């Protein structure tokens, strides 16, 4: 028991280093995944995909997945606080897309509508 206490500062430092390295890797993986999904759904850029309302059921499922992954990262932030910053981005964009879908937005493309 007392031997572990002697290594506690080393273990805490190791955990800190792993945590600091995990955050940029998580952000990079998130950005690559979102870019791949944007290309899959036919959007010109990642930003246009994140701004757009979901047009299909597959996009709605992807938005729910994005929001839930963000929520998981935010919950992990209770254990390791910087994960909250990683989780806020997917939680925001996924949640916004889900709200758009629940309001019925995105069913008709704005370019198809003429003046009212």
Summarize the entry for a quick read.
This protein has one domain (6-106).
Folded structure, characterized:
- By secondary structure, the chain is mainly alpha-helical.
- The chain has one domain (6-106).
- Helix content is 74%, strand content 0%.
- The chain contains four helices and no strands.
- Helix 1 (2-40) packs parallel to helix 4 and helix 3 (57-76) packs antiparallel against helix 4.
- The longest helix is centred in the first third of the chain and has 39 residues, at 2-40.
- The model has no long low-confidence stretch (mean pLDDT 80).
* Rg computed from alpha carbons, rounded to a whole number of angstroms: 19 Å
Task: Count up the helices.
Answer: 4
Beta-strand percentage range: under 5%
- The number of E-state strands comes to 0
Element order: H for helix, E for strand: HHHH
Mean pLDDT score: 80
* Helix share bin: over 70%
């Amino acid at each position: 028991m007392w031997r572990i206490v002697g290594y506690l500062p080393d273990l805490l430092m190791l955990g800190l280093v792993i945590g600091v390295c995990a955050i940029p890797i998580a952000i990079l993986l998130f950005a690559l995944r979102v870019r791949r999904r944007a290309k899959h759904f036919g959007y010109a850029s990642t930003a246009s995909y994140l701004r757009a309302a979901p047009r299909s059921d597959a996009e709605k499922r992807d938005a729910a997945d994005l929001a839930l992954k963000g929520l998981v990262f935010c919950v992990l932030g209770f254990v390791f606080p910087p994960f909250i910053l990683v989780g806020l981005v997917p939680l925001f964009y996924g949640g916004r897309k889900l709200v758009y879908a629940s309001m019925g937005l995105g069913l008709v493309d704005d370019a198809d509508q003429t003046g009212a």
